[in-house]
Amino acid sequence: MSDMKSASPAPGPAAGGPTQITLKLRDLDSDPGDDLEVRMRSSTKFIRLARTFATRQNRELSELRFMFKGRRILPTSEAPVGDLGMVDGDTIEVSPKVMIGG
Q1: pTM summary value
Q2: Is residue 75 one of the residues assigned to a domain?
Q3: Backbone angles phi, psi at 63, to 5 degrees
Q4: What sign has the CA pseudo-torsion 77, 83, 88, 90?
């Protein structure tokens, strides 16, 4: 007989499932304090987050630039936010795309 107890995985993050996180989107074009906080799972695709921001700000997704820890993230990215290194409380900076020429 074995002295080992059968253990079932605990629900939530310990079981390797997606965790709930809150991300802050800071619009560099608006007043400080007008940040948008969004609660989601770490498995949510970035494109969904970007579309949510664009819709709430009444702007086109194609005219926005998203930056996270100095890296640009394409608004059409299908990567989950957790895979991009985003954790609870992180801030994503959003600015208008700079158009050169004209």
Answers
A1: 0.77
A2: yes
A3: -100, 10
A4: negative
